[in-house]
Each structure stands twice: as C-alpha cells, then as structure tokens.
C-alpha cells in the first residue's frame, strides 16, 4: 500500500489536538446538562426526501448506496447522510413522540456531512453541538431567551481553554417580514434572501437587485437597507425600527420578542448579544428569533453558532412540535484554535506515570506497580521495552508524561520504589499503594501553545 | 409530512437509554485512559480501495455519492463509510506516522456502518469502542497479553450497571496454521475458513467439507476436529495440542504465545479467559493472537468483543506498523441490555431540580434560583409554564426529577424558599445559595429496571 494522503475537507486531529477537542466537548456537555438538556443521538442517515425539502444545500448532500444492493431488501435505499442535526431531531421527535415528554430539552453532539468546497471553517465532515427545545402543540416564547444564555454559559466555560470571546447577532423573522410587508413588498422571502447577501455583495448591489429582481422602488430599497443596518444592544432597537415608519401586526409582535431576547441577554451576559437586523439565516424553516455568532477577532471565520425558532419543521397532520435551537460549530471553532495554535494539551497521552522496566524478566513487578497506581485513578503505562533507563525516560519525555517510576529491590529482596519528576529531575522514594501526583498533573491540561 | 417510521438496523435510543449508553461509554473511556490509551477519531469515510482489500464484507460497504457531483472537484469521489475502526486507524497511522510517537496506544469510540441484514445484535449503524497498540517496525508481544486485561478491567466496571459477565475465547493463528501444516495441509487459510464454520454447520459437515473441498484424508479431517475441540483455562492447552502429535516451528512459537496470554489472564483475571482452538476470526489480516468474547448467558448474541494481532495491515514499502487490537461492540451489548430490560436510568433527564414558577410575572425569580443552583453544579431547569403547582410537580415526576423548588416571598417581600423531595413529599425551607441535594441524586444513576 502506498502512503495515503489526507482527504481535503475531512479533518483528523493528532492525539494532543484530540485531547483539546475532548475537553471542549466535555465542557459543552457539562453546561448543557446543568441547564437540564438531555443527550440524544440520531442515526447518521435520513431518507433523502426528508433532507431535500429543508433548504438550499440540496446538491451538497451525500447519498448512500450499498455496493451490492440486494433487491429483496430495499430497507436502506434512498438514504443520505444528514447535513445538520435539526432536521434529524425533528424527524426523531415525530417518530418517537409517544415515548417523549414535552417540552423536550435535548442536546446532540454528532458529526454532519456536506459536500461543500473545503476551506478553513468549511468542512465536508464536521462536529456540531446542538441544543433544542421542542414543545407539543406549543412552545413558550421564553425558551428563545434561554437558548443564548445556555450558549454563553457554555462558551464562557471555554475562555480559559483559549477560545476567543463571542458576539451573538440576533434578529427575528417576524420583524423582517413585518417590516418588508409594511413597505408593500409581497415576496418577503425574496427580500430576506437578498438581505442575506449584504455581507457578501455589499449594499449597492443588494439595492440594485431589490429594484431589478423584486420591482422595488428606490424608496423601498433604501428603507430595506436602512432597516438592515440597524444594530443595538438593548431595547432601543424597537424605537429605531419604528422611527423608519411602517406598521404591521407581525412587526409589532416581532419587535416585542426581539426586545425580550436582547434585554434578557443584556442582564445575564452583558455585551455578548446584539440585535442586528441584517441577520436572515439561509434556511427556510425559521419563523421567529434567528441567531448567528461571530468569534471576536475572527469574524472572517463566519458564524460559529447559529439557529432559530422553527414552528413547522416537525409536524404530521394536526400534530405540530414547534421548536427553537442553536448549533455550535465545534469543528469550525477548533480549526481556528489549532491553525493559529491558540492552545494545546500539556501532554499527548492521558498517562501521568510511566513505570520503567529493569529487565523483561521483572516486567511483572512493573505491571504490579501500574495496577496499584490505576486503582487510585492514576493513568499509568509500563515501558514498552526494557531498554536503558535513559531511553525509557526519553519515551516519557517525548509524550509529556511527567513522572517515571523505578521499581527495584534492596539487598534482601524487599521492594524499593522511587519516582522521578522528569521536568525537575527530582527523584524520591515512593509507595505504589500511597503515592499521588499533584492534582494538576493527574490529567492532561489545556495550555497556551 | 407523514409520521416517519424507524429504519430497520439503525437503532436510536430514548433519553433514558441514552443516559445508560453515555455512562457505559464514560466508563470505557475512563478505563482506557487509566491504562494510557489516547483517544483518537478518524473520519467516517475511506477510499473504497482501502476498504475492499481487507476481508469478506465487501458487498456490505456503503458507497457515497454527492447528489450533484462537481466534475471539477473529484476530491470526494470513490469514498465509502468505514465498517470497522481498525482499517481506518491503520490508514491514519501510515498517513500521520511522522507526527506520532510509537508504540502508539489509542482508543477510538465511533459509529461504523455495514449493510448487513438487521437482527438483534446485528445493525447497519453501530458504535464500536476499540483499543489498539501499534509499533513502528516491531511491536513487543506483551501487548497481546495486556489487551485482554484492559478489556476485563473495562467490562468489570460495567458489572454494576447490569452488564452480564463475559468470557473471552482466545486462539493464535500461528497455532492453527502450524498445526494444519504439520498435518500436511497446504491451503491453511482454507482449513481455517472451514473451522470458522464449526459453530454454524457442526463438526460433521466441516469434516465433509475438509475432505471434499480440501482433499483431506479422514485421519486429517479427524485431527482438525480434535484440535478445534480443545479448550483450556491454563497452560495445559499446549500439552493437549502436543498430545495430538505433529510438529512445526510455527506451532511451537504460537503455543508459547498462547500459553503466555492464558497464564497472564489466569493470574490477573481468573475465570475470564479460555484458550479455545476453534476460534478463527473471519478477517484475513490477523497473524497471531485472536480474541472473541461471549456474554455469559447470552451466547446467542455472538461475540461482543473481538480482535487480534495484525502484522501487515499498516505498511507502506519498508515501513511496517504491526499492531494488536480489540473492539468492544457497544451497540450489540446495549441492545441486549435494553431489549431484556436489564437496567435503566433513574431518570430520563440530567435535571436534579425543577424550579416552579408562581406566575409568568415572577419567572425571573425562578430563573435566579436556577442560576444559583447551577453555580454549584446542580442540574436545574425552570418550569415551562406557570400552571398550578400540582401540574408542575407532575412535570417533574414524569421525568424522574427528584426535587421541586418553590420560590416565594413573605409579607415583607423578603424571599422565602422551600424545596420538596417529591418522592417522600417532604418539603423544607432552603437557601438557593447553600442547599445541596444528596450526592446520589445529583446525577441520573443506572438502576435495575
């Protein structure tokens, strides 16, 4: 076999990077559970018709085919890999609703796949960490204010692992659609789609497109751009929209909701959330609050955390399960952390102690020491070969293992043990059934790179 | 959308089952790290040619295709989902060898996909938990004795969550091949393949096939069957093989290795490992010790934990990375635990406390209590709606949340808090900044169903 080369768009971490990823995922999980969100996983595949009715990324879907499909067994035909965790969760809720308690708060940390053109922050395989709340029939609005607070709590727990601070940009579909309707537009989704291109093509070309594609007057186009330029970190956002004129019941409802979200965040997490009326979100299914999040100082990376309220995603006949969710782009975050070497792990292995081996004949003695240490929760491995001690110490050093243990015996055959901190070189007698490493050395830590 | 139905072969757990799965995975991870194994993940996809050269399951591979593939961008053509974690790990080692330290001890817990006909214990999507050790150029034999001990340590940590005990059946390819060669067979892989069918078709038909397909004499066929019937829990296995006659250097080498594995396990984990010479393992790449594991009392489930030594899986030109690994079939284990209701979770949510809401106007008071409790690591949620307290208590009860918190104020507006253990009905005054639940109630526990 020739030496393989990496597949573009399918990132794989080295052991030290994986330790950082694990600690990030552990902290996200811890916070989500603190807020009462239950873990769920869904299968990686969905029927294609499910995936193709949800948004604009149809052609990026990966379809599955069994190499030699059995015509008698079509149970797995027409399947494709999921590209997010919202659509599969909505399907799961419908399928298992009789076995679930509502409102259902769940988090879901899994890989997703999209055949996008790879670049930093855009991968073909990537890990998402989603939280959603779904109600049966109805879902109280206050979950739209809770979700940003959960995310801020979770991401604040990552600041000390080197993650830059975030800023969440929030809008409400009712505000945009209500305002556009008050201006006289009929194709509200069309206006939203053009506003969504503001960052990419700039206001001048959006203005042209509003006129050319949607038949807007200059005044209408100008009002849309003024509206989309509004940002505010408090309830004043409503006054600024009302100052543009225009009146619509949907606009009023949306503004009241938007103010509640902004004000709740301003009290609980000052400076972390801003109302930003150009936020549109590509996906069709959002019906209320929409969220996007930038990494401060790394805005080029795109949104690291997005979501919104969806009223009609999970519905079957008269059974409707409205929901709201936010998805953290874990791989996108980590790719920046690793490419800019913001942090690393203090060692590349879980091991705190390497037990040296004097000779292959006495390996059992070293194994016994390792067993004693493991009983007290100290991650321990035994040297692979009974080479010179200098080589065994280098084995530990190259992996960042802080301690090397030397089992021995005195002239009477009684065991004599010493342990060396290979960073300081200090070597002291130690009892395998009592010695403990400093708490800081017990597990790998995340440190500045 | 019509109500979806489950896809056969793609199991999805309910929230309480997922809690059991998480605790099982956490314990496996804990043990693997205690023994110094580093976590790694590989991408879900491999180039098809990689997957098709490894074994007998070609036709079960799921091939990927982008819905609208871009002819300018063929970077993701010819990919398929991995069906195990050994082949991807071998590829990863070759690809990243310059960045890795050898011997490399890694564990890997991920989903795999095979288009098998679904039945209990056989799924199209399933989670495997693998440990492997890979060396550069060479790998000391003692890792073949270590791996079963790691697995026993890991699985023993699951006994108190209701997992039945296991028995590992071990053989060595060198023993089988050396013995078959000493009998005069040339197609050693052919004999192995027929021996592998013993459990399925029985000794009489294996005997017939040895004669008909491989031209064996009756005496040769009888010797193969006698050999394959040998089992032993100690070093006597070597004597019993030698008593059959036959001599071959490979046989001698294999017997010495097999005895070392059996004796190491007999000392460290008595009764958990048995030499069983009919064990063959389907995959071609094993070259030494091979492992299979049955769940005691559930032998019909098949092996829940399999693996072996592979000398040539990861090699590129003169660079060879011999390895040994064992894979725990987590989904297969859990499917039995759930289908026979061996255990469940003490509640279906992480939440320890539900904070009641007296009225929507005072929801902020309840949110503040929840924030205080979360600061001390107590998983807390706030009631979704300010319904009657009886309904809020039922909300907690249906999820198994043990405590409901009632924030209130006295006649002077001073906050007055009470917390109720809804199992006993006992309600006591409590301070949101000081109260702690009993340690046993802090997190969901695994309990007898």
From TrEMBL, chains A, B:
<dbReference type="InterPro" id="IPR006195">
    <property type="entry name" value="aa-tRNA-synth_II"/>
</dbReference>
<protein>
    <recommendedName>
        <fullName>Histidine--tRNA ligase</fullName>
        <ecNumber>6.1.1.21</ecNumber>
    </recommendedName>
</protein>
<keyword id="KW-0963">Cytoplasm</keyword>
<dbReference type="InterPro" id="IPR004154">
    <property type="entry name" value="Anticodon-bd"/>
</dbReference>
<dbReference type="InterPro" id="IPR036621">
    <property type="entry name" value="Anticodon-bd_dom_sf"/>
</dbReference>
<comment type="subunit">
    <text>Homodimer.</text>
</comment>
<keyword id="KW-0436">Ligase</keyword>
<keyword id="KW-0648">Protein biosynthesis</keyword>
<keyword id="KW-0547">Nucleotide-binding</keyword>
<dbReference type="GO" id="GO:0004821">
    <property type="term" value="F:histidine-tRNA ligase activity"/>
</dbReference>
<feature type="compositionally biased region" description="Basic and acidic residues">
    <location>
        <begin position="414"/>
        <end position="424"/>
    </location>
</feature>
<dbReference type="Pfam" id="PF03129">
    <property type="entry name" value="HGTP_anticodon"/>
</dbReference>
<dbReference type="Pfam" id="PF13393">
    <property type="entry name" value="tRNA-synt_His"/>
</dbReference>
<keyword id="KW-0030">Aminoacyl-tRNA synthetase</keyword>
<dbReference type="InterPro" id="IPR004516">
    <property type="entry name" value="HisRS/HisZ"/>
</dbReference>
<keyword id="KW-0067">ATP-binding</keyword>
<dbReference type="InterPro" id="IPR041715">
    <property type="entry name" value="HisRS-like_core"/>
</dbReference>
<dbReference type="InterPro" id="IPR015807">
    <property type="entry name" value="His-tRNA-ligase"/>
</dbReference>
<feature type="compositionally biased region" description="Basic and acidic residues">
    <location>
        <begin position="440"/>
        <end position="449"/>
    </location>
</feature>
<dbReference type="InterPro" id="IPR045864">
    <property type="entry name" value="aa-tRNA-synth_II/BPL/LPL"/>
</dbReference>
<feature type="region of interest" description="Disordered">
    <location>
        <begin position="412"/>
        <end position="449"/>
    </location>
</feature>
<feature type="domain" description="Aminoacyl-transfer RNA synthetases class-II family profile">
    <location>
        <begin position="103"/>
        <end position="350"/>
    </location>
</feature>
<comment type="similarity">
    <text>Belongs to the class-II aminoacyl-tRNA synthetase family.</text>
</comment>
